[in-house]
Amino acid sequence: MCPYSLFPAGGKKKCFDLDRLQAFETMLEAVQQGYEEAAQKMQALKAQGKEKTVTYKQHMANKLLYMNMLSLYRLYGLLEQPSPQK
Q: Has residue 71 got a pLDDT over 90?
């Protein structure tokens, strides 16, 4: 049974679940927040000259993980492409 459905241009019925959509949105928020937190912690450690510490490297690994996840969201059209940096 389909709790919610749409009839897009093709006329074919598509089923979607609002709870699942909300879970994806919540996950996206968590990934974006994790990325920002890792970047901020790395910046603070760098200001202290602690780029070679295990903590710094762990934050870098976390940041790369989150960056990869955000790239996947973009790849599948679930997140807008970033604007080109100058």
A: yes
